[in-house]
Amino acid sequence: MPVMKEKKAPTTLSSQVEPGGQESCGQERSGPLPSGAGAGQSGQTAPAGHEGRAAPAARPAVTAQELALKQREISVSEFFTKNRHLLGFDNPSRALLATVKEAVDNSLDACQEAHVLPEILVEVRQIDENRFRVIVEDNGPGIVRQQIPKIFGKLLYGSKFHRLKQSRGQQGIGISAAGMYGQLTTGKPVAITSCSRPGRPAHAYEIQLDTERNQPIVLKEAEVDWKGGRCGTRVEIELEGRYQKGRHSVDAYLQQTALANPHVEITYVPPKGEPVRFERQVESLPPDPKEIRPHPYGVELGALQGMLKSARGQRLSTFLCTAFSRVSRRTAEEICTRAGLKPEAKAHLLTLEEVERLFKAIGATRILAPPTNCLSPIGEEVILRSLQGQIRADFYSARTRAPVVYRGNPFLVEVGLAYGGELPAEEPITLYRFANRVPLLFQQSACAITEAVLRIDWKAYGLTQPKGSLPLGPAAVLVHVASVWVPFTSESKEAIADYEEIVREIRLALQECGRQMGRFVQRRRREAEAERKRSYIEKYIPHIGEALQEILALPPQRRASIEENLKHMLERSRS
Amino acid sequence: MSGLAKKIQQEAGQIASDISRRKKPSLLVPVRSLQNVRYDPAKGYFALGKRRKARTLTVATVKTFAQTLKMIAASKGLLDTREIATKREMYYISKNWGDARFLEQDESDTIMDDIEALFLVNREQLGFVPEEKGGDVAGRLIIKDRDPATGKTLRIDCTKFGSGAYSIPISVEDLEFETRAKFILAIETAGMFQRLVKHRFWDTHNCILVSMGGVPTRACRRFIRRLGEACRIPVYAFVDGDPYGYSNIYRTLKVGSGNAAHINEFFCVPKAAFLGVTPQDIEDYDLPTHPLKEVDIKRAKDALKNDPFIKSHPPWQKAFQKILEMGVRAEQQAFAAHGLNHVLEVYLPEKLKRPDKFLP
Fold first, then answer.
1. CA–CA distance from B247 to each of A85, B84, B335 (Å)?
2. A434 in helix, strand or coil?
3. DSSP structure class, residue A526
4. Which pLDDT score is estimated for A18?
5. pLDDT of the residue at B43
6. What is the distance between the alpha carbons of residues A372 and A413, in angstroms, rounded to a whole number?
7. Residue B347 among the catalytic residues
8. For B50-78, how does the pLDDT look when each residue is reduced to its tens digit (9 = 90+)?
9. Selected catalytic residue, list B39, B91, B92, B250
């Protein structure tokens, strides 16, 4: 179902272009776009009907009619062409990463929904100095033929936006935006091959995006053979990009994806060098996250108003019971009484003032916390297995906290920790951040996870900690925040917003793992100390034996027994 | 087997039997510091106090314990073969001990001092001889020594070294003396000694000159002691007029060192008297001076407070107080300000007329 129907007032972006060329959203901004984007500049653009009021005398007046000629709808595709940084396509190396990421996230979500243990192939092929072809192939359920063009050739088309359920993608922007970016920078279409019925041929498409109309253009359509007798989808996007190693690389993203998703098998063919294989560490799929209705505490006034409007014909109490989770008939009546509204009132006819009362009444009513079975934690055992599979350390610990609620949204925090082994001893710890199992590679310092790590006194757990920075020591820390609605700081989903409830949960989980690590470090220090003492003693005891033998002309067996006794006495002593 | 070798065996035997009974062995070593020294003016030297420190074998002490035993074994080896080793040689011998070897000679010297104290002997008896030079001698003295090769007696006339001097050997126990000199003058610096030798000071004052070269070594102290006692002549000390000259050089010559109190009985000259330079001399002879250094002041105050020798001699307390009040020091060679030979033509003759005025 398309999200946006053109020329339908409440969900359309209208814009006007001033003589100066500056564009802005009109009054009717609403709908799912980030509210900050392009809004709020209306001080400069006089909407129709207000003309003349502020027109400077020196310039010829522009009539509303003239302005109206320039006012037209902008498509989301156009909007994103100009604001691609919002999605993480702001430079060539990030664009390459974002493309891989969107494709892999989609594959993983699809496999999860189809209950398939994912096998994913990622290939980044260098075509030219600045040109790459990203190929991502999965063993997911495939996509039915008719849907292929819409999914890959239309922005804001997807299945995940309208529900409250833990998943990687949410808005349905990602993969088509990646295709659009490729098309913009190379002119090449997106190539999709998908097989949705095992044993049958696959459908191969080449699709371009009509950015003006936000519509797919099918360039080529064919039936091709699909190997292996199973389903799957293969996406190829050619784009201008830059390949780099390090913290923000495709390599890091895939490695961390494997870390948080140990049920996945990833084969990665980088532009240079040998293919890398991230083996599957666990043979079972994570439990399916359940879809839930929103909790009343999480709804904002405007959203409540929108929901009421679309509940045409429903009685208010029925609306409250069906639109929200945890609202029983009694609770609904309690809310209505508190708001001074009749439970049988028509929901869509409430005035703004009444909606406000209703909103306040919701906040004042005790409502059960939302169900938490909508969350799918990785699980302590699986985190341990995953860490052990990827990081060679001496100590591992993991903790999955019980679900908690922020603003009516259930979330839970998990922490995994590895210490010692091959981890570098003198450097800052490695911090792996995940939201709904997706690695967060950018904006580490702006993230609630980092905030929580910094607030902990790691010295108590055996690491050193320079003021205001990550602790130093041979440790790697994994933090996973799972929620039906993760509060990211921006649309590119790079950092989790600093909500006190979330920071607190992360801190508690870190402390639980930290304490275990601290005990381990302590024990190891004690053992090292004992070992040092033992070897120290053993170094000098033979000299005592030898000296006594020389002075007293002792037989060798007497010397040996003296040394044996000495060893015994000194090892048992404390100092 | 010598008595000392037996003592060594007894000590080692005790340690071995302790270990066999699973008892931690200990070495009872006298505490070697000024705090554990008694001064008896009647005897005239620093004697070791009663405080003992038990060096029990623990994890912390296992290394020094092993090193001590290894050195005791080395000493016994020397005694058994009638060999000697210098402190430096001992340090190098330890290089064969693997992990128990010494890294600096300081470490091996300290342990050697411990062993001396443990057996209440001087290190020469253990077979360890000092590295240091004993000092120089010139004047009206004939020393009888033996030729190391032939064993024939040698008569050494100490007036016949020209501008040089006789050098005191490491071991002086077997030397014999012939002299008619009236006194021994023990001089701090080689420079002053040279001046007196050049002018054959003994011709005018019938004496024996000894150059100590700073704090006198054990051999130098032992030589002066034996010479003074054998010939029954007094010993006068002529050192710089500063706290170091008083409390380190003269005090060590007279009563021995606080650090090796177990052997002072033999290595000191209780009959020595202090000719100069006294604080009074600095005023009387109008000597050029330097201000006292921080360390001089500290040393003087420390001597007044802690040194048992100074504490039992009021004239010395006065001298220290005076020099602290004056705040200056004067060297032996400061007399050169009044003419190069002022010291041997005026100062020494005047002082030597009144030995009763010398400080104790």
1. 84, 32, 22
2. strand
3. H
4. 37
5. 81
6. 12
7. no
8. 888 888 888 888 899 999 999 999 999 99
9. B92
Closest chain A CA to residue B66: A544
Burial annotation A255-279 (CB, 10 A radius, 16+ → b, else e)? bbbbbbbbbbbbbbebeeeeeeebe
Mutate to test the interface with A, among B6, B70, B95 (most CBs of A within 10 A): B70
DSSP string of A310-373?
HSTT-BHHHHHHHHSTT--HHHHHHHHHHHT--TTSBGGG--HHHHHHHHHHHHHS--PPPPST
Q: Specify the pLDDT at position A44.
A: 39
Pairing of strands A119-126, A265-269: parallel
Identify the residue whose tokens are 């006794």: A565
Give the best residue of A535, A551, A552 to mutate against chain B (max B CB count within 10 A).
Answer: A551
Q: Return d(Cα A433, Cα B254) in angstroms, integer.
A: 79
For residue range A408-430, list pLDDT tens digits in order: 788 999 999 999 988 998 899 99
Q: What element of type H or E holds A182?
A: helix A174-186
Name the stretches of chain A with pLDDT < 70: 1-58, 71-78, 80-81, 86-87, 154-173, 492, 573-575
Q: List domains and CATH numbers for chain B.
A: 3-129 (1.10.10.10), 136-357 (3.40.1360.10)
Give the whole-angstrom CA distance, residue A182 versus residue A385.
38
**Prediction pTM value:** 0.60
Q: How far apart are the first and last CA of chain A?
A: 77
Taking each continuous run of H as one helix and of E as one strand, the counts in chain B are 15, 17
Neighbour-count burial for B138-160, b at 16+ CB within 10 Å, e otherwise = bbbbebebeeeeeeeeeeeebbe
Contacts of A552 in chain B (CB under 8 A): 9, 12-13, 16
- Complex confidence, ipTM: 0.72
Instruction: List the one residue out of B15, B262, B2 whose CA is nearest residue B116.
Output: B262
Q: For position A169, what pLDDT does the model report?
A: 54
User: Which pLDDT score is estimated for A65?
Assistant: 77
Q: What digits encode the pLDDT tens for the residues B326-359?
A: 999 999 999 999 999 999 999 999 999 999 999 9
